[in-house]
Amino acid sequence: MKSRTNRYLALAIIVLLTMPFQAKAIEKKSGKNKKAGKYSRGMRQRLGLADVLIKDPEVIILDEPTLGIDPAGVREFLDLIIELSRESKITVLLSSHQLHQVQQICDRVGIFVKGRLLATGDIKTLASELFSHDPYTVEIGLGNINAVTDDQAGQTGIDLIISSIRQIDGVNSVSETNGMLHAECSRDITGKIAAAVINTGAQVTSLNMKMYGLDDIYYRYFEGDEDHE
């Protein structure tokens, strides 16, 4: 059944590939004999996957499979990879520099830096290991800062707000960039941070808990590798 499913899926891909050329051939007989080598890179990528599926594999290795494919095609291709893995139970090894795409579809990842495998695991576990000291980053947008009472000489409204947040147990550090505060925390204390800001007289215009993704994980390993050279 698995073999038959994969073959039907491959045939479906081939049909989708050839349909545009069949339509053109009806109007002018120029595309019906077009060779696969003349297809666009994106079309050849799909055709290559179809060719592999016909062989009923247990493992598929894909190297930059979405390169040269338009956005709509990328979404379809990624959905197909997920379907192959979850429904057809095919192991898919994906090599790509498109980290956001890898994060969307992969259950486990391996981080390579300069040809060396530095880490493997699921994204949540890798993030918790790398950012164990500050696993939570809260981003706070501020408004009405001028309403903050300057009760200490030389302190601005921003200084007072930062000082108030730093007094919260669990906050390790606070920084400011273009009016946006970033609080590095040892646990989720978003509510306490919001309350502290409001108590100063300022407004909270946005509050966001940053989730560490594959980009953050990769660059942390990359920076660490650079430091050890």
What features would you describe in this structure?
The protein has 229 residues and is of the alpha+beta class. The chain has two domains: 2-107, Rossmann fold, CATH 3.40.50; 133-210, Alpha-Beta Plaits. It has eight helices and eight strands. The protein has helices at 2-27, 41-54, 71-86, 99-105, 123-130, 157-166, 190-199, 214-227; strands spanning 59-63, 91-95, 109-113, 116-121, 136-143, 171-177, 180-185, 203-210. The radius of gyration is 26 Å and the shape is elongated. Residues 21-30 have low confidence and may be disordered.
The CATH architecture of the largest domain can be named as 3-Layer(aba) Sandwich
The residue ranges in which pLDDT falls below 50 over 5 or more consecutive positions are 21-30
Helix content range of the residues, please? 40-55%
Number of helices: 8
CATH superfamily of the largest domain: P-loop containing nucleotide triphosphate hydrolases
Question: Which tags fit this structure?
Answer:
229 residues; 46% helix; 2 domains; two-stranded parallel sheet; alpha+beta; Rossmann fold; four-stranded antiparallel beta sheet; Alpha-Beta Plaits
